[in-house]
Amino acid sequence: MITALSIFAARSAKMVLATTIVGGLIGFALFHLHEPRWTARMLVKLGQITTFAESGVAVRPIESQMTAVDQINQPAYRFNVLKNLGLPAPDGGNADATLIFDSLRAAPGRGTDLLAVQVNAHSPELAAKALTASFALIEREHQKMYNDVVERMKKELADTNAKLTVAEQEYAKAYDSLKVSQGRDGPAVRDLFTTNIAATVSRQVIDLQRRKTQLEDSLEPIRTYSTRIMDAPYVPATPSSPGRTVYVGLGALAGLIFGIALFVLTRIRG
């Protein structure tokens, strides 16, 4: 009786061991059949516009964080990324196009002006290119917005400089006239009129100088800038898809479970 049980247990152990080994071999084979994937990530800093108003300094992004995230996650945007990469539509049977289209995603970064963008591809080079193409699309659109705002600010600065030059000339004339009139006896009414003109022009000069300073500060690169890459596309050296150890381990585990189930079933039938 004991001998029979020992033989049965030994056979069952061999069966479980055999199914475990077979499962590991199947996992090893599947590892070589699957195509590895790499995940690329980058961090984008949204551009901002700085303006000065009566209430103080106003800083606004070229585009809000959530709007930019929604835009990148739209199918049309991902279609354009594929187009820039020279890849066909994702439903055309091209594995690279399908993987990039399905995996390209943007999410809010830790800061309110940061975007975290990532994509999967079948090679590290293609993953990095996909992120570069994705950034080029949003950067081109934001650059247009930035250029429009900066051009308006530069035009206003040029107009302000021209007005300031005229105002300073008028103030100099009024001041010279006031000095001349004070050096000789003349009508008090004319002196008062000249004084009022000088005071008015002086206030204009001060206001224009302040506006000029505000515009120059707004145009400083640290205050007003376009969207840019904060962290360049990074692709780890190893693929993000499961490695050989994982495939073999999962295969062996599946074989072990199958072997135990087969052993239990045999025991019940016996």
Overall form:
rod-shaped
Structural class: alpha+beta
Low-confidence stretches: none
Main beta-sheet annotation: 4 strands, antiparallel
Along the chain, the helix and strand elements come as HEEEHHHEEHHEH
Mean model confidence by pLDDT: 81
Report the end-to-end length measured between terminal Cα atoms.
14 Å
**Beta-strand percentage?**
5-15%
In percent, how helical is the residue content? 55-70%
Give Rg in angstroms: 37 Å
Number of helices: 7
Which secondary structure elements does this structure contain, and how are they paired or packed?
Layout: H1 2-33, E1 38-45, E2 48-53, E3 56-61, H2 65-72, H3 75-85, H4 95-103, E4 105-108, E5 114-121, H5 124-182, H6 188-218, E6 228-234, H7 244-269
Antiparallel strand pairs: 1-5, 1-6, 2-3, 4-5
Helix pairs in contact: 1-7, 3-5, 5-6
Q: How would you characterize this protein structure?
A:
With 270 residues, this protein is α+β, with helices and mostly antiparallel strands. It has two domains: 63 residues; 206 residues. The strands form two sheets. It has a four-stranded antiparallel β-sheet. It has a two-stranded antiparallel sheet with strand order 2-3. The mean pLDDT is 81.
